[in-house]
Design a protein that fits this description.
Blueprint: H1 3-21, E1 29-39, E2 42-56, E3 62-73, E4 84-88, E5 107-109, E6 123-125, E7 135-139, E8 148-149, H2 165-182, E9 190-195, H3 197-212, E10 219-223, H4 234-251, H5 257-260, H6 264-284, H7 291-305, H8 309-314, H9 321-327, E11 335-336, E12 344-345, H10 359-379, H11 404-414, E13 419-425, H12 433-443, E14 453-458, H13 468-484
Parallel strand pairs: 4-7, 4-9, 9-10, 10-13, 13-14
Antiparallel strand pairs: 1-2, 2-3, 3-7, 3-8, 5-6, 11-12
Helix pairs in contact: 2-3, 3-11, 4-6, 4-12, 6-7
Length: 494
């Protein structure tokens, strides 16, 4: 080979390598496939559209493109009264993979009945999907899944347009408007479902869609909700932890016999009443709580938490969740999971105040990551070399001005159709079921909207649907909620 030929070959090779490294994704494209799934013993045919839809700026230029997957039942002739569910996960920075591939969609992970990974990885039909009663779109915010910004040439991306409580709500409302218009779904009853931080997102979206897009909803489903801007700091935060501690301790069979022999819900009722009626007033006295009462409270916390009285006193009656995850099974050599305390972890050493890692999250990433990458490319036929971000770079996240709980209350007040369903797992230590109840109680101080709020609890964790029994139960609750809030022929008035 001559020197000239060698240089030409190297130049071509470098050019090809450079080209291959430019992992771009189309701004506006769809891959369409069809399928069917048996739900409740009946075949439901559907069309799946997976692809990108732009986010526009005020001048009509694309500034980002969001990956989404839309499932539409195909044996419905008129979709005017066919509900549409718009689904988000949380983080912030999480892809909408979790509920998509394990909860409401037509396919779910191949996992065991308690939610643990099994090989070979993959997906299977979901016999409990809500696709029989509603069409569903799973939306991935910027930098999650394949969603990305589109920076102008030579300019940095303006992060303030995407990465904050209110910025997130604003651009996603615009995106939803475009989606609903493109799919001819303006007449359909509409629902938002969000999990974890996604509950902050959809609570804010409820009012944003009404006030700026003139789009009115029938329901908002809050799965493992956050505080949504509703304060519960200080002694409220401390007291609210106890019922969750009770649930996790009951599951691991470390409560006193008198409690352990009772059903979980009976035990939780006791713990809740103690937390509200006795623990909260005692904590209000702080360091001025007298010695005898302090010891009495420590004994009760120990009774309902499975922890040692001595360590409770050493922590001034204020047991952090991270200490609880580390300490509950310390003598057995295990930590317990943050988002689902049924999961066990192994630390480098038993000493310490918090676990080395989140045992539940590593387990979930173990099974979800291969499944979603396989499913999108091989079954939904969407092809790209761009990496699927299970969690994407969205931080720092601007959390200022979070009034999303109040926004949801205002949206309900303005819209007589709008109802709320809250779903929580008893073993969730990050967004606990009792905090969810407290948020619901505080959402509307007037009490006039409480009949339009519904709470459901499950014997699992943050992603309650990973447990086979709760997958069915939780989907049935959503199905029932949608059916009962589809107000066909009923006027929206007080």
């Amino acid at each position: 080979m001559t020197t000239k030929t060698t240089f030409a070959f190297l130049f071509t090779l470098i050019s090809l390598l450079s080209y291959s490294q430019k992992r771009t994704i189309p701004v506006d494209t769809l891959a369409i496939t069809t399928g069917q799934v048996s739900i409740g013993g009946k075949i439901v045919p559907y069309k799946a559209s997976a692809g990108m839809q732009p986010v526009w700026d005020e001048n009509g230029n694309p500034i980002a493109s969001l990956f989404h997957t839309y499932y539409e039942r195909t044996d419905v002739k008129d979709n005017s009264d066919r509900p549409l569910v718009i689904s988000f996960n949380g983080g912030p920075g999480s892809a909408s993979v979790w509920m998509h591939l394990a909860y409401t969609g037509p396919k779910i992970l191949k996992i065991d009945d308690e939610g643990y990974p099994v090989q070979p990885y993959g997906v299977k039909d979901n016999p409990h999907s809500i696709l029989d009663v509603a069409d569903i779109v799973y939306v991935n915010p910027v930098n999650t899944a394949y969603s990305r910004t589109i920076p102008e040439s030579g300019k940095e991306v303006d992060r303030t347009k995407f990465f904050g409580v209110n910025a997130d709500i604003k651009y996603l409302a615009d995106w939803i408007n475009t989606f609903v218009s493109r799919k001819n779904r303006w007449r359909s009853p509409k629902y938002l479902i969000g999990e974890s931080y996604g509950t902050t997102r959809v609570s804010g979206l409820a009012l944003e869609l009404q006030n700026r897009q003139w789009m009115y909803l029938n329901g908002v489903i809050l799965v493992s909700p956050t505080d949504m801007g509703i304060e519960r700091n200080g002694i409220v935060d401390i007291a609210n932890r106890l019922p969750y501690f009770t649930a996790a301790a009951w599951y691991h069979k470390v409560l006193p016999v008198a409690l352990q022999q009772k059903d979980l819900l009976e035990v939780l009722e006791e713990s809740e009443q103690y937390a509200i009626n006795e623990l909260l007033p005692a904590l209000a006295l702080g360091g001025f709580l007298n010695y005898a009462k302090r010891n009495e409270v420590a004994e009760k916390i120990a009774y309902y938490s499975g922890l040692d009285k001595k360590s409770i006193l050493q922590n001034n009656l204020d047991i952090s969740t991270s200490f609880f995850w580390k300490d509950l099974l310390r003598n057995q050599g295990f930590t317990i999971g943050r988002l689902d305390s049924r999961y066990l972890g192994l630390d480098r050493k038993q000493a310490g105040d918090s676990p080395d890692y989140n045992s539940e999250l590593t387990s979930w990433l173990h099974s979800f990551t291969p499944a979603i990458n396989y499913y999108i490319s091989q079954e939904l036929k969407f092809k790209t070399d761009v990496k699927y971000n299970m969690f994407g770079p969205v931080h720092p996240w601007d959390r200022s001005g979070d009034k999303t709980g109040e926004n949801l209350r205002q949206a309900m007040a303005q819209n007589p159709y709008l109802n709320i369903l809250i779903q929580s797992g008893y073993y969730d230590g990050a967004t606990s079921y009792f905090d969810a109840k407290y948020t619901m109680w505080q959402l509307d101080p007037s009490g006039q909207l409480k009949d339009r709020m519904r709470f459901e609890g499950y014997r699992s964790g943050h992603m309650m649907y990973l447990r086979a029994e709760d997958l069915k139960l939780a989907n049935d609750h959503i199905r029932d909620f949608i059916t009962n809030t589809n107000f066909k022929g009923k006027s929206a008035k007080y």
